[in-house]
Amino acid sequence: MANTRTAPSGTPTNVTQKHNQGGIGESTLRPDGTLKVTGEFAYSSDMWHEDMLWGQTLRSPVAHAEIESIDISEALAMPGVYSVLTYADLPAAMKNYGLEIQDTPVLANGRVRHHGEPIALVAADHPETARRAAAKIKIDFKELPVVTDEASALAEDAILIHEGRDDHHAGHVPHQNIVHRQPIVRGNAAEAAKKADVIVSGEYTFGMQDQAFLGPESGLAVPGEDGGVDLYVATQWLHSDLKQIAPVLGLPEEKVRMTLSGVGGAFGGREDISMQIHACLLALATNKPVKMVYNRFESFFGHVHRHPAKLWYEHGATKDGKITHMKCRIVLDGGAYASASPAVVGNASSLSVGPYVIDDVDIEAIALYTNNPPCGAMRGFGAVQACFAYEAQMDKLAAKLGMDPVEFRQLNAMEQGTVMPTGQVVDSPAPVAELLRRVKERPLPPERQWETAGEGADVRALPGGLSNTTHGEGVVRGVGYAVGIKNVGFSEGFDDYSTARVRLEVINGEPVAMVHTAMAEVGQGGVTVHAQIARTELGVTQVTIHPADTQVGSAGSTSASRQTYMTGGAVKNTCEAVREALLEMGRRKNGSYHPAWAHAELLLEGGKVVTDGGEVLADIADILEDEAIDLELEFRHRPTVPFDLVTGQGDGHVQYTFAAHRAVVEVDTELGLVKVVELATAQDVGKALNMLSVVGQIQGGTTQGLGVAVMEEIIVDPRTAKVRNPSFTDYLIPTILDTPTIPVDVLELADPNAPYGLRGLGEAPTLSSTPAVLAAIRQATGLELNKTPIRPEALTGTL
Q1: Three-class SS of residue 652?
Q2: pTM of the entire structure?
Q3: Which residues partner with 676 through β-bridges?
Q4: Residues forming a β-bridge with 326
């Protein structure tokens, strides 16, 4: 039976833009941009239904414990409460979910494994009633010892976070508290080390970073009259959510209808399930729409974070500056559940060498199960942690050899044709040395600008800013460089594809294209690019973007810098098929009137069919008349293979992308305060489909890298595994006052294997911005600084 409920307010609608031009290569404006800056854009937290209830999650106050009893009677007795659900109320045999390994309980069953794990759900007629009812649920815990680091996780008598593992990684790991292990061995690092004139080593610590998206997790579940459910939600991957949600609801996928609602940022944190299943369970239990919106405190527990890491590196080099070998071991803390940890391990290991030519390597990367908060996807996905460490090593090698750090990097930089440690050949441009040249040759900003400004001096130019703690004494400038390498798209044999449906028809006498995909628009500007592609390929001015939902095939995740490559590629391919169908229709109708229909290369421009010589043959509207062309096609990139579990060999990645940064800092060495004056960057994007969006993505990624360099870290108590700073009061992110000038230099060296020659670009700037800032602070202070973020006490020696 069809669902006849009224659509909730805030439901996404078609987005239509009309331009005279607006094709590929132009900086067309975003259709959602003005709405967002004026506060009129409908985010998922703005959704509303006239008879809806509010959902609330009760979460564990401890990190590891047995649940001995749960008493929900007081909560159920509260006026306005419609339902209270626990594990015992789950309707299907499948009670777990997960991106790759289904190890995450929908609600805790007898045991909690991390601080903030969901235990019970409440639906009530007011959000405050739901919150108070959840607080009345009584739970008796028997606390257990916590596993918080490698030593406690891998001890012979270690508590197993997950007993009886049967996932496909369990058979090849040396300890059941290791989620996944990936070694990479190429050449003979031990023998190559004997040829080194200098050897440097280091141990590096990378803190746990939060995605810190401004729009909290939220959504609205509406029960259908067919026994199914309609879910309006902010997510990164509609079809992945669907495949995890339907089994635990006990419903076929066609009865779980998902529509993307307004997303207030993601950065990897919405790739996993948060409130989706919970809202649906409450809606089906009450037969009423249920809205859930996390507050900021709960959001810190409601999504995964970036893996904190310990990294051990050794590099050797000859006296003339050639790197001889590299050894490294990377330990990622995956927390209580697997999430994307296996794939993060693959990235961290395969990209751990950096954008350098090193023939002899010995690499190991692992992810641990612990009682710390679950970690998974975040912008940069394993490559960020590695870049922080290998770039510190490059500076150490250059210093020990007495070489300029940029020239040393350029001497060892990879290029097209370089063989990666996995044996994969880099078969498209790799302008690493050129990117470094560009950031180095950019003029430096003036030093100590406050000294020449006189009475007009701005304290915001000083370390400490408006706190007015620094007056110029002890302020030292530092300049640092870094460059990184990131893969694009899903790797290691994953069947990575995207789907696009394109419809071309005449509306009010004008040809109009409708583009329908399941791509999650999370702020990256995909809806803008899809319209640009349609205008370019179909020669129309008016393009309508259909709301993303599961009524069309999967577009994959908005992650891995893949959406413009993959779903953009799907839109391009489908538009090309629609164009050919239109031309075939024109040949049938008009071919006898002009020989060019049979022999010339035909194009669609300005709503007309034209020859490559510019002769107009027909109007698109006249060819279509009352007919429509409606096609849905899939697009796949070239295949990849899993890395060998012993040697790590294999063509595991689709594409590589590169970015370099130069950081200029001024450090108050007495107070330990840092002012990042400038973060210049250069990046190869293959082809800029929309330069305005390209620059915005690069500056945004750079700013997130700045954050983890000097301020961002989730603090987890090592004794209790409890999060100590789940708020934006205590978890600091860069504001406009912290963000420096970010000049961007864009290269466009086409990748012949990619649509339009483009490269995925959103993640690469997040890699090298962090180590560039650290390198600049090291130069200013002379300190080694092997941990992020850098705090004042690390600079003043008052730890």
Answers
A1: coil
A2: 0.95
A3: 665
A4: 315, 361
